[in-house]
Write the structure tokens for this entry.
Amino acid sequence: MKVRLTIALAALVSAAATGAALAHHSFAMFDTQHPMEISGTVREFRFVNPHSVLVVTVRGENGAATDWTLECPAPGILARQGVTPSTFKAGDQFKGTISPLHSGEAGGSYFPPQVDLANGRPSAPTK
Amino acid sequence: MSLRSALGWIAASLVVAAAPTAAAQQPLDQGKYPAFEGQWIRIGPIERFDQTKPPALGQEAPLTPEYQAIFRANLADVAKGGFGDDPVYTCIPEGMPRAMNLILPMEFVIKPNITYIHMEYLGMLRRIYTDGRSFPADEAPSWMGYSIGKWLDEGGSGRYDVLEVETRSLKNPRTYDASGLPLHQDAQTIVKERFYLDKASPDTLHDQITVYDHALTHPWTVLKTMRREPNPIWVESVCAENNLQVNIGNEHYMLNNLGELMPAKKDQPPPDLKHFNQPKK
């Protein structure tokens, strides 16, 4: 599981930096200019349309826990990059770079590298 | 009406009613059609109408000055965290021609008198009639439009090598892509396409698309290219399943993992709750 999670995270982290467009809607509500790293515990991963959702519980300096709702790509995109419904499991340790919501709420976008099919193959790692 | 003429009328009606069904059930002459089978995946970046150019203004769409202004206003809204004019975040279909951006793969189903294009993304379906019909006079508009196609044997090989398609009766709102690149509000768009396999690479498919739209100064032609996936997988794409984006009034909000309403922009006012009992102070 740890290996699988590492592969997925490597893909997802580099994506947040690209600021690639989401399929279902524009990226405008997320602050791609100020990516941030969060660490925490996976609470839930929903492999759902139009975007998969990763919920990560993050503990602040005062120990208070906050759930971060992270919008990820559609299952159709993730599945072709090797991410499955069980890639993230409740209790997994999570560390990743996200594009936070402009609103300042505990949410953001978290997604794999833009699929580059110029050579006929995705650039994201696959399993 | 005599009994004989009445029976004749009924028989004629049955023949007319049965004709499309019978035609649709004709076996397909595989040797007559190009090898369009399999799963086709976009080559190039996601969500670009012209796959060869950068997004948004980089597309260099030949918009009229009026629609250039509309597009720039849309981009200004996006820069402030809005969704601009892109309507798809509400889960309505992309429609034509945007559907051919192929966020996710597509497949053809070719029948003697009709060709279907099934797109994984949002479960969109194109129905292209190839039975020689004309466009109906008063077709209700739809996002995928009403498409009439024609198979051509341009190479003279005895086998069709091009599918020409014209699509009309389109419904708004639609944009070319997620940047909000606009089509005209009159919804009079006509989309003409030519699907053909690459002569040097039979696992490469091209779709030359020309858009005729009153928001354009001249028809806009782009070339879409797709590759045949040797190991296809298909994934269901039902947008209503868990859409976290919510439109209330003229504002867009977002739901968190508990289904609670959150602002999507900094300092965004809450929605009007006048129809709910307000807590007493």
Remarks:
- The first strand of chain A starts at residue 36 and ends at 46.
